[in-house]
């Protein structure tokens, strides 16, 4: 029974998507240490808080998508625990509230480091995580998910991580946040491609539903390729940290996944592509971080 419950909660937090929260914190931390102004404790709090925010969002989405009838027995994506009856709705709701509360506690420490603006960003991140699927006009149902994901998993996460450690900020840090933001949008795009039919029936107007499969495929290709070549523009701007250009090699690793997304429509294949895109993001962040520190 305990093992079954653990597996259900593991499904609920969607571990394959967590690189989207890890990668920008890793990059922001590497940039801070590469510039000689990093702080280990603050970096760890940033990482924990980022993971809590993402897990809380995943749990809230599981709960509210079920309550709105978006997740049905026809779902082709990974199991949603509330819809599948693996965890009672009340427990999932209590869990995301608790996780967001823990994220708020972590944010308090970060506010003591970076000031009130960090608190504002933390509040916005929590509200976005809840109202992505909650409320009368959920942000994700209006097609705003791509913008939110790019912002909070991209420039905000990288720059915020760097700033609370260094109390400094520059344009290169914001530019560095573009790549993880684009990769995170690519992950979301695969999710939306897979769920197009069910989202359309339920009134969830993602960009894939609004503009069609061709647009979503173009969006995915643009995000992955744009993320991979972003280091070129960063180097052109700062004329330093030449090793970060090794990140461009991620394009080669991305080819099989790009091909799968462009040619497959069934849920199983796209589930694998979603996980593969998340791994590309993590690999990119590791290469970038090593390249910046060297």
Q: Could you please describe the fold and organization of this structure?
A:
It is a single chain. The chain has 294 residues and is an all-alpha fold. The protein has a single domain, classed as Farnesyl Diphosphate Synthase. It is 76% helix and 0% strand. The protein has helices at 2-13, 19-34, 40-67, 81-84, 89-114, 116-131, 145-152, 155-166, 171-176, 178-194, 196-202, 207-211, 213-238, 250-263, 267-293. The longest helix has 28 residues, at 40-67. It starts with a helix and ends with a helix.
Query: How are helices and strands ordered from N to C?
Result: HHHHHHHHHHHHHHH
* End-to-end C-alpha gap: 48 Å
Dominant shape: globular
Helicity level = over 70%
Number of strands: 0
CATH architecture: Orthogonal Bundle
Q: Which fold does the CATH topology refer to?
A: Farnesyl Diphosphate Synthase
Kindly provide the name of the CATH class: Mainly Alpha
Multimerization state: single chain
User: Beta-strand percentage?
Assistant: under 5%
Which key features would you list for this structure?
294 residues; mainly alpha; Farnesyl Diphosphate Synthase; 15 helices; 76% helix; globular
In summary, what is this structure?
This protein is an all-alpha fold. The protein has a single domain, classed as Orthogonal Bundle (Farnesyl Diphosphate Synthase), CATH 1.10.600. The protein has helices at residues 2-13, 19-34, 40-67, 81-84, 89-114, 116-131, 145-152, 155-166, 171-176, 178-194, 196-202, 207-211, 213-238, 250-263, 267-293.
């Amino acid at each position: 029974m305990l093992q079954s419950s653990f597996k259900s909660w593991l499904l609920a937090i969607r571990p394959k998507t967590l690189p989207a929260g890890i990668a920008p914190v890793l990059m922001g931390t590497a940039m801070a240490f590469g510039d000689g102004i990093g702080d280990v404790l603050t970096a760890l709090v940033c990482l924990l808080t980022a993971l809590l925010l993402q897990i809380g969002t995943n749990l809230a989405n599981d709960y509210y998508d079920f309550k709105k009838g978006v997740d049905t027995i026809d779902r082709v994506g990974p199991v949603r625990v509330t819809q599948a009856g693996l965890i009672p709705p009340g427990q999932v709701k209590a869990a995301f509230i608790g996780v967001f509360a823990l994220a708020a506690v972590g944010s308090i420490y970060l506010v003591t480091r970076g000031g009130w603006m960090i608190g504002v960003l933390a509040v916005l991140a929590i509200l976005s995580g809840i109202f992505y699927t909650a409320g009368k006009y959920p942000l994700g149902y209006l097609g705003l998910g791509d913008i939110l994901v790019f912002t909070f998993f991209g420039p905000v996460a990288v720059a915020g991580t760097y700033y609370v450690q260094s109390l400094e900020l520059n344009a290169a840090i914001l530019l560095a946040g573009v790549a993880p933001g684009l990769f995170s949008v690519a992950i979301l795009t695969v999710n939306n491609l897979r769920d197009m039919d069910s989202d359309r029936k339920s009134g969830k107007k993602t960009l894939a539903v609004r503009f069609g499969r061709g647009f979503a495929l173009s969006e995915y290709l643009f995000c992955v390729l744009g993320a991979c070549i972003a280091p070129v523009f960063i180097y052109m701007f700062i004329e330093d940290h030449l090793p970060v250009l090794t990140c461009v090699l991620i394009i080669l690793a991305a080819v099989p996944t790009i091909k799968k997304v462009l040619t497959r429509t069934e849920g199983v294949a796209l589930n694998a592509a979603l996980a593969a895109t998340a791994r590309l993001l993590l690999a990119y962040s590791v290469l970038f971080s090593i390249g910046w520190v060297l």
